[in-house]
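REQUEST FORM: STRUCTURE PREDICTION
Request ID: SP-0412
Submitted by: Lab K.M.
Chain count: 1
Length (residues): 471
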Amino acid sequence: MKPHVLSLCLLLLAFMAGAQERNVARLVLADTSYVDLSLGVGGEAGRLHDVYVPASKLNGALDVSSRHKLGRVSLYGHFGYDYEYGKGSTWRGWLDPYETPFMLADSIPGNLSLERYTMASGAGLSLDDHWSLGLDMAYDVALMAKHKDLRNKNTAMNFRVSPGVNWQGGQVGLGLNLGYERSTERVEFTQIATNVEHILFDIYGLWVCHGSGYASAENRRLKTNNRVFGGFQFDWTPGRLALHNELRTSWLQSRQTEVGYNNQQFGSTRSWTWEDDLSLEFGPAHALEASFIFSSMQGFRPLQRQELDPDSRIRVWVTYGDPVFCYWRQYHVERLNYRFGTRWKLLVGVENWGMEHSYTEYPQRFVQRISTLTPSVAVEIPVGRFTLIPWLGFAMDYHAYTDNTSWQLTEPLLRQWDFWDGNNYLGAFDVKWSSASGRTYIRAHYDINASTRYDNDGARHTAALTVGFVF
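STATUS: Completed
RESULT:
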């Protein structure tokens, strides 16, 4: 099949989205056409992991992306499938447990399967020598299921649409895109064994929770997110200097309700996020990259009680007053990287990460603070058709928290601090190979995260292998 025919077929296959939002009006700046198909496998294991992460997991992925230019129109398409199987998973009530402090979860370790389908498409239209328009759309579906009582089944959907505009004039380029994203996730807990009582935890934030025996009538929850976002792009290329910057911001509102007619509410959040990516290149030998992320979240719980509806004679939940502010979270990430060299390359970087969050259950208030500073160094070594990239880093951690564990879940709290406590040695090794034609490539990756706190098994190992074909 001819490359442009295959490209158009994949664009039809990948009609909607799953990649990070982008200003596709800028697609017209690059006169490229390709189809990139890759298959990957990977896995990780080790004691040093987040409380939500399985003790070990394996995953496989298929990814197809395509770009094609037809006159003034530039097209983009993407389709991805990922399957993950984890062992020993606990406290995983949502696909992304960090998205909200409110969650249903259980403490019994069990195997977990997760499937993701991501689809994306975009089109950019060149109006003249300076102006271009674009439209990006996205649609994702994810299915997650635990295979041991209590069994949670999650079904998630995400849709995104983002129009954009770009202006290019000589050495300066300006771009702007706006967008809207809606996502929903439904979780339902079930139990097969009838001779054992399992506890289902309603977690409010910072592991403050209410635990009760599993009841089939109170085991479902629906989370609905609405997000608006925007991005501004600026390019400046005077001579050998090339500066690229993109500033993004988003506002997210999330709400959790009962699945059904009874109108019970469990919590809501409001989040504001700012991101910026800056790259500065001087000739082929020098490059400086800097980025930051800042996000602030507020969480609210409703005041509700059950009352008898006089018309239907059914007990329903009635809300009184405005939701009560109970949770606050703020996190930030700053990265700075410098690259030197043309054939052999030296990469030096530093990352600073920090988070503070608190939960109030009057008159108690619980606070956790974590920060990490990680300097790193890497070398990119070309050897024939291979490229070798050894990488070393050292994470220096600091954290603090209020010692009110009588109100908190001690076991997951201690596991989480085991993951964050002390300093960590970080190491990685990447090997890349490409054929003489550039149409076939192989990438192998291995990394280790080892804590200075543990003598035995205080590490996490990750390995991955990807084979790709370019048409």
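NOTES: The chain has two helices and 23 strands.
Reviewed by: T.R.
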